[in-house]
Amino acid sequence: MTACSYTPEKKRLLKDFDKTVKHVRGILESRYGEDFTSIVIPEIRQEYEALIPQIPYIGNKKPFTQWLLATAQFLAMYRVLKRHGKSIEEAGRIGYETSEQMLDASPKFVLRFLGRATFSKKRLRNARTYAEESQKRKYPGDYVFKFVEGDNESFDFGIDYLECASHKFLASKDALELAPYICATDILQSERFGWGLTRTMTLAEGGEKCDFRFKKGGKTNITSTVLAKK
């Protein structure tokens, strides 16, 4: 990747997107039928390809880059479905269900391994370093966050996101209404990875920050206003 664009990685990004589409296709077919799905799937891929040069470069730090690229995939799907008369509620839930299917398709032992790694000493050292680096704001479209030391009781460690790359990207594309649905997927990740995530506010829903608190093996405690809608 160059220092200003993800365009050189377009071939790989489209290949990754095609893996996501396999799950999207089944969900769309179950809701709208094969004819509708056969029309919109190529349009969604084309939309994502067009978005790749517009994704703000934030370096190549995992998992931050993956989160932003996933947001671009969500956005491509939302734009196409919207053009075909579907609501934000429909598109948002389809994105959420896609994330759920992709996680459930992963072997449980892999999810457990990744979940435990979140709390490893190495990962926590990296999180502290990334937090300090983020506050230098090297990339305008990047995440900016603070590391919060755990209290050894209610949570093991925390992350306060002061700026969110996904939120900023969606704002630049006049699609902030999609952000709460993307935030809701944190529920899925917490449950599958055993994060024990508690969150009381998000930037997407008007909060001053996203206050993530992790407790290994704990209960997920996140509310989502969009998922509560019928």
Outline the structure in words:
The chain is 56% helix and 10% strand. The model has no long low-confidence stretch (mean pLDDT 94). With 230 residues, it is of the alpha+beta class. The protein has one domain. A hairpin with a 7-residue loop joins strand 1 and strand 2. The N and C termini lie far apart (42 Å).
What are the SSEs and their pairings?
Layout (H helix, E strand, L loop, with lengths): L9 H23 L1 H18 L12 H20 L4 H17 L3 H10 L3 H14 L9 E6 L7 E7 L1 H8 L6 H15 L4 E2 L10 E5 L6 E2 L2 H4 L2
Parallel strand pairs: 3-5
Antiparallel strand pairs: 1-2, 2-4, 3-4
Give the overall silhouette: globular
Q: In angstroms, what is the radius of gyration?
A: 18 Å
Percentage of residues in strands = 5-15%
Succession of helices and strands = HHHHHHEEHHEEEH
- Low-confidence runs: none
Would you kindly provide a brief summary of this structure?
The protein is an alpha+beta fold and about 230 residues long. The protein has one domain (about 5-230).
Main attributes of the structure:
about 230 residues; alpha+beta; about 55% helix; globular
